[in-house]
Amino acid sequence: MNEYALIAKALHWIYRLAPGLYALRHYRRGDLRYDLVAGLSVVSVAVPVGIAYAELAGFPPASGLYASMMAMLAYAMFGSSRQLIAGPDAATCAMLATALSPLAVIGSPEYLSWSIALTFLVGLMCLGASRLRLGVLADFLSKPILIGFLNGIALSIVLGQLGKLLGFPVLSTGIVDRFVEIADKLAQTHLPTLGMGVLAFALLFAMRHRLPRLPAALLVMVLLGALVALFDLDRQGVAVIGAVPAGLPNLAVPQISREAIQTLFSAAAGIALVSFSSAMLTARSFATKNGYEIDPDRDFAALGAANIASSMLGGFAISGADSRTAVNDAMGGRTQMVSVIAAIGIALALILLTEPMRYVPIAALGAVLVYTGIFLFDLRSLRALWALDRNEFWLAQVVLIGVVVSGMIQAILLAVAISLVRFLQLTARPAVDVLGEVKGLAGLHATTHHESVRTREGITMLRFNAPLVFFNAPYFRQRMMAIAEEGGEGLRWIVLDLLPVSRIDVTGFYAIKEVSEALAKRGIMLKFAGRTTELSSYLAGRGVNFGPVRESTYPTLRAALKAFRQASSNTSQQADTGLPNDPSNPS
């Protein structure tokens, strides 16, 4: 093998481990201006939000910036979403603080040490889950659930920032509780802070219509920060970000002891699950909006790498950041380069801009996030769901209400539970269609879909639209016997289309056997169409001799219908000649 082949093989493995490198190597220059604007806009939100979440988790302000920077770089290298921005997240920060507060005093060196160990352990669990291909959990999240969750995020973002716009603290966590608290505190509104928020809104909307390609969020932060510095508005009660330590952190390898693993294992598993579920809901929502697919297993690994990288710089557990992802999407970000640009921007901010950063008003940050939440609410998709399927529309509303009433973490569990229930409902109680012919249309069609379907007397053709397995076998028996009863005394054949039946387990096989025997006692023959070779091979390979399957199979429903007509014709001729009838044997 020559040196070029070795280099090619090495690159193949590198790109397989870090697919983001391949995307960056083949980066299109035409995307740079969009990604640059989006990256700068993300920086303008990620810096103050990272500081705020660091305080929520009990860390120094700079730790939130370290976590943001490393999470963005790691996800850009290993993740599959073009829009998702990884970083500190309210849910994971709250869970981290809850898990660690019984172990050490918040803010103490012991607390920081435990947190770094917990974050590293979360990363290892995410990598292990990726190796086990547990990203399949994301496949249970349907489009209505994604729409409902995304709209719930939008409402959560808006209500979560109103206190910053009005100039008083909001201590409640749930959306309903926040709304009630805000209503009670309206008399405490700080007018200078409200004025800064209104000015920020006006600038954001004006730039959206007049200067859509500029990083509006960043410019608003800069302009309002300059106003605070020039007129000493912070001394008049306008809340600002405040001082941030300058410089980059030192790299360190976290020390994980057996005690730490035993103590933090369950907390790490919970944070890993919530981190992945939250990130996938956000990533899937924006991937659907922008017309591409993501790889959940790769993203599980990307979140693992991001958490490990965060821990090595003294950061804390991260997830997919919905507000920063929404800013990225709203500002036209196209690729993972947005995360790289944002990470570089945060690093430069830590080195160069910590002094002017202290003047940025919290109200400006709140205005940017509320503005983002307004445009994140997907009313168009709700209208489409209403037109297509009212049940799916109400499913989206249930998920939205779940976010509003119970919060993000519980809403994630609700979304997963609803998905599992819907999956079981669709497979345990699938549609069983009676098929017939429609004049002017080729093929066979369900009677529930066409009013003019013609069925033939003496034969009923059925389609069971699911695998036939243990949890729907009783339903299969019930529906088959009910259809036989509806067919009346003239029914002689029931033909089951096996094409939609992608799998038959042992319980399903015995259900077919029991139905066949029960129908035979009524003088009705159970026949099969499609997948007949697979079914016969399955039985023969296990030494099972089930005569009705072997003797009553046809390649297609049309072939079965033709055989029935021939059998009926032969029966009529035998009746005329006095020969015995045997409609099950057309030959």
Shape: elongated
* Averaged pLDDT: 82
Number of helical stretches of at least 4 residues: 24
Note poorly predicted spans: 579-587
Describe the structure.
This protein has 587 residues and is mostly helical. The chain is 65% helix and 5% strand. It contains 24 helices and eight strands. It has helices spanning 3-17, 19-25, 32-57, 61-78, 90-100, 109-131, 143-166, 175-184, 191-210, 216-231, 258-290, 296-312, 322-330, 337-352, 354-357, 362-376, 379-388, 390-406, 408-428, 473-487, 506-521, 532-541, 547-551, 557-577; strands at 86-87, 319-320, 432-436, 445-446, 459-464, 493-497, 525-529, 553-554. It has a six-stranded mixed beta sheet. Strands 1-2 form a two-stranded antiparallel ribbon. Strand 5 (459-464), helix 20 and strand 6 form a beta-alpha-beta unit.
